[in-house]
Amino acid sequence: MYVCNMANSKLYKGSLTTIILKLLNESEKMYGYEMTQKVKAITKGELNITEGALYPALHKLEAEGLLDVEVKKVDNRLRKYYKLTEKGNKETVSKLEELKDYIKTMETFMSPKFSLD
Which segments constitute the Transcription regulator PadR N-terminal domain (predicted)? Predict the structure, then answer.
């Protein structure tokens, strides 16, 4: 899947789709290796997405109509660039809202204010 240097990598299970959508929401288009390096840089090496996890996720998102693919020749090699479709933009908004709600709930849970009232 993807490698996480943090203590509990299971927390990242299921978050790859959201990570991909967020990256593409912030860039016009990206290719796979570029995504892996961006995640590594943003997380200062704490989260490393493997190609074995990334490409099946990208293909699934493409099949669901969330991504468009553009193939370009770069340095005599073909490179696939991924970008969000209109449907992908809507799904990104939805996924990011879900994540924000989840984080807010977890923050509330982690710092409860007990009362004797």
Answer: 20-91
CA distances for 35 relative to 3, 7, 117, angstroms: 14, 23, 51
Beta pairing partners, 73: 78
> Which domain CATH number covers 37?
1.10.10.10
The residues facing 80 across adjacent strands are: 71
Residues 6+ apart with CB under 8 A from 52: 1
Question: pLDDT digit of tens for each residue in the chain (117 aa)?
Answer: 445 444 445 556 578 999 999 999 999 999 999 999 999 999 998 888 988 889 999 999 999 999 999 999 999 999 999 999 999 999 999 999 998 998 899 888 888 776 666
Position 92, amino acid:
T
| Single pTM value for the model | 0.81
